[in-house]
Specification:
heterotetramer, A: 398 residues, alpha+beta, Butyryl-CoA Dehydrogenase, subunit A, domain 2, Butyryl-CoA Dehydrogenase, subunit A, domain 3, 13 helices, 46% helix, 15% strand, B: 391 residues, Butyryl-Coa Dehydrogenase, subunit A, domain 1, 3 domains, 4-stranded antiparallel beta sheet
């Protein structure tokens, strides 16, 4: 048993920290720190800086543009990125479709898409959920019918994050309506500029436009945009979910929230004292801090298991479950820290793009955004209820 | 011992329920919330016509002599529809303070206008450092001529933006957090030296910060005796907590009903969500929370009504040894806990659609969350409760 | 809406309080206050005092020996009894089989049993649960076969409280093995001295002997001991459960626990301070105190509903659910209040019947008994899980 | 970074696991618990033969130079079987203190006997008023001749009844709760003036109160420097917390496994309990709790091992800015929470049978509950954690 960084790790950590200190633009850092949505321009600007550094795709093979980092180095990178308040790359390209194309894509697909994912010239979105299929994803109904050299797509996707910016979508469609529900699904790449696609915004509780509905009416997608085999799409979708799982607990991010919470509590007054000295508030802070510590050691333990070639069972579900709850607790405590100044949440100021509230302490800005958006942490990527189903199914089999 | 409404109360409830049913569908509310004002002057006039704006005031002043129980039943209906008009700030807080402390002239002019629906009012008692403590007043009022000069910062005045008059607390003597030395003033928010910063709260209501710089106040606009306002402030906040608790009960019941209906309709894995035991159990817990909250809210309303009438605690069932202030703090804690639990779980049980601004459940969630904070959160009132017991 | 006692109520309250002050023997009060099991002799002695006072059976009709109290008076009596640390009468006779016999028993059964229940000459026990049927009570298997003028009983009951003291058992048996499970059950009165009955102790977590297994081997029970109709026993059992429901939340008892907890915390030292002044402990106390207040008002509200002739729906299940949790929280806090002195729990001292621990503060005695036994609060009378099933079933029908 | 056992550690674990499997079935344990001694001297001798009693001591003293990680793996196996022998009191607490503070003679005689299985020992640091604070020492040690006279009351000495020697803390100077002025003494529990009151704890282990009345102690039996014992006490308690945390992890895993097996077998309403979603979810939560606990326990063991070796925190992953004392407090809090949740729910999920003394699950529950209290409960260690951060 060993819980120490090697000398190389420590040097890598220093290098990464310096990179963030020097290269992360202040305007981006500020929005990220406050928990505000990062506009497309900032997101792309930052991703291109990562690309220039060669650090855009830690999970890719080195000869495709990956970094060749060990899991420890990836952990260090994730820690430092979050501590520096650097926005993580949009996952849809580099973390989701990228690895799928590397594993299952044709050479043509790889050559066409991978470079643009790496340099962030193409913005991807994910076409999975449908109005009738939430936790039960495999019940999806969007239909693709072969017609000449095209699939013709009809149907609807929902909860499509950032589809309004997207150039491309990877999309699950039903190609065999008669097969069992997991077996009639194919995995398609769809150019978002194709006629027949309509993107409609969904405004969230945070009053931001992050989510969308995407409607398909006789949308023609060339057959060469099929990934892998027809009707095997479920396999690729599942393999993609595996990739989504590293650092699923968002420990590094929660640690940054904790730092911010302590900063705020150290300036927020209660009468002639500071909030950080209030025993009630402090105890809640301690409770979540300790739970986060256990979560972090768990992340390290499971990481070590993977480094040893061990197979994970219920662990990712546990990490998702605990991690999402801790995020929500922290975001609630941030709200609580503001006292009465937690009430204002000015839609008009948002519409003006003035972004800053007319009143209240400067640090109040963004906290409600983050809190409201954060309610989705226990929903997306498998609800807490689904995670518990998964965990207990695996346990009961033992 | 009974928890039934009288015939008059049932009639009042029917009228308000009908108003909410007719005017506060999710769509109607969303439209209203998106207007510049954020609520409806026409509804406000309807409230005046229905007598709601006169409800708690003495008959002698033209009021209806309604009790905290009557107010609670109105607020519960309002909660069901997430009514946006500034009832508590105008009628319960400002109205309550004027009715308790005002001289004949103030009562006649201000309450008359309030009851007629011609004036909205608000109460500014918070400050940036005060968090939830109404005795924490750093805003100063210095004598100047026959009147006063106010300097300071009153924060998050609920429904400040639409208020024609705002009652503000300021210190005429005493140390910053002393209960002695606090005075109330009737402020014209358009007076010279007043900067009113307006915003919307997360649940779509108005709120203002008031920056007061050498604001001149006439002697006529001192409300009550100089330096002696604290007991009336405390009493007004108790009435407001009772009202907002009843609102929460109405909102929680609606939230639970909407959520259960959704679970019955929404299909996943080939069956309705309502067939999953873990979700069934959650709805049971949510139901239990609202039942506990209703009991507290109704008991508090009766407690405040009876303590207005006499001071004999002995005959009060269940809280023979408990002060009204204790019941108030306990109610706010219990309802804050229920509101948070129900609000968060209603979003969780809805899944994606619960995260959207268009669907109604998120608005219940936000209102419930705001109610948990308004007038003091669970920690604040737990500590208040403890101070009353242990000193 | 009215939440006041009438003048008569206040006078009744005074009378009841005086009765407990004057008539409750100190030795019984002491054991009850400590949460210790009440031995049979004490239990019977106390019940006979209640009988002499005419207050043994508040729930019975006046001409059968009931008190004729209003629900408010019953509430007052329950409050004062718990506040005085008076043990409640054993429920099996007066609260369970008594009302069933009054409603469904033959005149002979009534004449034979009711007087002895009232004066506590007969000790009853309840033969419901079986090894295979816990929450699923109706799946019970103990068989009764008619043979001449007798039923012949074979089978086993379990969790039978105080069967070791019992003269009589009311018992659910299966008389029609082919009917649907609720429909083949009969309700019998069984003399515990009948040959073929064997009572075996079950020692609980609290190391007390409260529970038993009861084995039936060819036990002959005269047919006149059948209550009501054959195969209709489930109906009577259900009606009995209704009677068990008043004050199911045990509010009065929890209020007494809270008083005790505050007393202990006011004497228990932490260094140079008292536990009651420790903000962490105090906050837990406040939290449960407030939840208990809500529970009490709920009890009053539901009582008032019944007094108005209203039908209760999910309310008893809610009260059971919340009430049992609050009891357990209070008992845990009592344990917590003792600090390190929560550890000792001396089986040997018990075997000696010395009853008192060799060490620790005097108030520590009985707290662990009460805590361990109290873990059953969320199990007996329908587990918390079953209560939630019931509540949600009723809600979803609306 | 790895969480694997070395080959030696795996071998050690196999040996201890086998011992527990062979000797600590539920029935075997119950038989043992019901003896006068409450554990087995023959098992104790086996531990000596296996080298377990020499595990943490320096090679120079005849020990095996084992680290906190090695101790933890033994304790985890012990936790699985709810082993009753006084390993922590003798080896970790008393042994640890002697090994840190003892002079050559004390180490040779006492540790030798401990390692050989010839002596059991315990550590008396609590007092009736001290709750969990080891600095709260009112027992006094006054100089008398070349030795000391002890007066006071040491409470709930874990495994005191079977201890041949008990190390007790007493105040030689300083105010009652000062960390300065605390000394340790090696007490013969049969010495004149010592009244040893023996009892069993709820989880079937021994505990004593010691009433000390003018007890004479030789100068030779002062352990370490006069008045300077506190840091060693703190360190010994950290080691004990690490050990008991590992024990809790073993006990929680066993508890969860037993509970899941029961749910799979127990039929209700025509199906196995394991098919009810609400119970499935509970088992998932219980599993998650033990995983979080294991991570804390293993990290703490490594932390203590490494802080014994060097003081360079920089290279420690995950807690670069954290003191060992902080990790200790956090671990005790986290594991106390998990132990309580798992213990209570294992009884609840078993239903009636979980409430009986005969069935094994109640014994896991009781041990887990006791571990939550032992060496300080969640409130105590939360406050310790806060004091380390905020002062």
């Amino acid at each position: 048993m060993e819980l120490k960084f090697s000398q190389e790790d420590l040097e890598f950590k220093k290098e990464v920290r310096q990179f963030f200190e020097n290269k992360l633009p202040a305007d981006i850092k500020d929005r990220c720190e406050r928990g505000l949505v990062i506009p497309k321009e900032m997101q792309v600007r930052w991703q291109k800086i990562l690309f220039d550094q060669g650090w855009m795709a830690p999970n890719w093979p080195v000869d495709e543009g990956g970094t060749g980092w060990s899991l420890t180095q990836k952990y260090i990178f994730a820690q430092e990125a979050a501590a520096a308040c650097a926005p993580p790359p949009m996952p849809f390209g580099v973390n989701m479709i990228g690895p799928v194309l590397i594993k299952y894509g044709t050479e043509a697909q790889q050559q066409k898409h991978l470079p643009n994912i790496l340099n962030s010239d193409t913005w991807w979105c994910q076409g999975y959920s449908e109005p009738g299929s939430g936790s039960d994803l495999a019940s999806l109904k969007t239909k693709a019918v072969k017609d000449g050299n095209d699939y013709v797509i009809n149907g609807q996707k929902i909860w499509t994050s950032y589809a309004q910016y997207a150039d491309m979508m990877f999309c699950l469609v039903r190609t065999d309506p008669d097969a069992k529900k997991q077996e009639g699904i194919s995995f398609l790449l769809i150019d978002m500029n194709t006629p027949g696609i309509e993107v409609k915004p969904i405004i969230g509780l945070d009053l931001n436009h992050t989510l969308n509905e995407v409607f398909f009416t006789d949308v023609r997608v060339p057959i060469e945009n099929l990934v892998g085999e027809e009707n095997s799409g479920w396999t690729y979708a599942k393999s993609l979910l595996e990739h989504e799982r590293s650092f699923i607990a968002r420990v590094a991010n929660s640690k940054q929230l904790l730092v911010r919470l302590k900063q705020i509590a150290s300036t927020q007054r209660i009468g002639d004292n500071l909030l950080i000295n209030n025993p009630d508030f402090r105890r809640k802070l301690t409770a979540v801090e300790i739970d986060l510590m256990a979560l972090e050691y768990s992340e390290l333990r499971f990481l070590a298991k993977q480094m040893d070639g061990g197979q994970l069972g219920p662990e990712p579900s546990i990490m998702k479950l605990e991690g999402s709850q801790i995020q929500q607790r922290l975001k609630k405590l941030l709200v609580e820290s503001l006292g009465m100044y937690a009430l204002p949440f000015d839609a008009d100021a948002r519409a003006d793009e003035s972004d800053y509230l007319a009143m209240g302490p400067e640090h109040a800005h963004g906290i409600l955004d983050q809190h409201f958006y954060g309610r989705s942490a226990t929903l997306v990527g498998g609800t807490s209820e689904v995670q518990k189903n998964v965990i207990s199914r695996l346990l009961m089999k033992r | 011992m009974d928890f039934k409404y009288s015939q008059e109360q049932t009639m009042l409830k029917d009228v308000v329920d009908r108003f909410v049913a007719d005017n506060y569908s999710a769509e109607q509310r969303a439209t209203l919330a998106n207007t510049e004002l954020g609520h409806s002057d026409s509804h406000w006039q309807t409230f005046a016509d229905m007598g709601l704006l006169a409800l708690p005031f003495a008959e002698a002043l033209g009021g209806m002599e309604g009790s905290a129980v009557d107010v609670a039943l109105v607020m519960e209906s309002f909660g069901k529809g997430l009514v946006l008009e500034p009832y508590i700030p105008t009628v319960i807080l400002a109205g309550g303070l004027i009715s308790t402390l005002g001289n004949d002239q103030q009562q006649a002019s201000l309450l008359g206008n309030i009851m007629a629906g011609k004036m909205k009012a608000a109460f500014g008692y918070c400050e940036p450092q005060s968090r939830f403590n109404p005795a924490d007043v750093e805003t100063s009022a210095s004598p100047a001529g026959s009147g006063y000069i106010l300097n300071g910062h009153k924060s998050i005045v609920w429904h400040g933006p639409s208020a024609n008059k705002i009652i503000v607390s300021a210190r005429t003597s005493g140390t910053p957090r002393s209960k002695e030395g606090i005075s109330l003033f009737i402020l014209d928010p358009n007076a010279e030296g007043v900067t009113r910063l307006n915003t919307r709260t997360a649940d779509g209501q108005g709120a203002s910060d008031l920056l007061l710089e050498n604001v001149q106040i006439d002697a006529d606009d001192l409300l009550g005796e100089e330096g002696k306002a604290y007991p009336a402030i405390e009493r007004a906040l108790q009435a407001a907590i009772s009202a907002v608790s009843a609102e929460a009960v109405g909102a929680m019941e609606a939230t639970n009903e909407i959520t259960r209906e959704y679970l019955k309709i929404r299909q996943q894995f080939g069956t309705a969500l309502s067939n999953f035991q873990s979700l069934q159990h959650r709805t049971a817990e949510m139901y239990s929370e609202v039942e506990m909250s209703r009991s507290m809210s109704e008991a508090l309303a009766m407690r405040l009504r009876d303590s207005d009438n006499d001071n004999n605690n002995d005959s009060h069932i269940g809280d023979e040894d408990t002060l009204p202030a204790q019941t108030t703090a306990a109610t706010k804690v219990r309802i804050g806990k229920a509101a948070t639990f129900i609000g968060e779980n209603s979003v969780q049980l809805h899944g994606g659609i619960g995260m959207t601004n268009e669907y109604v459940i998120g608005h219940y969630y936000k209102r419930l969350m705001m109610i948990d904070i308004l007038f003091g959160d669970q920690d604040y009132h737990s500590r208040q409760y403890e101070q009353l017991i242990y000193g």
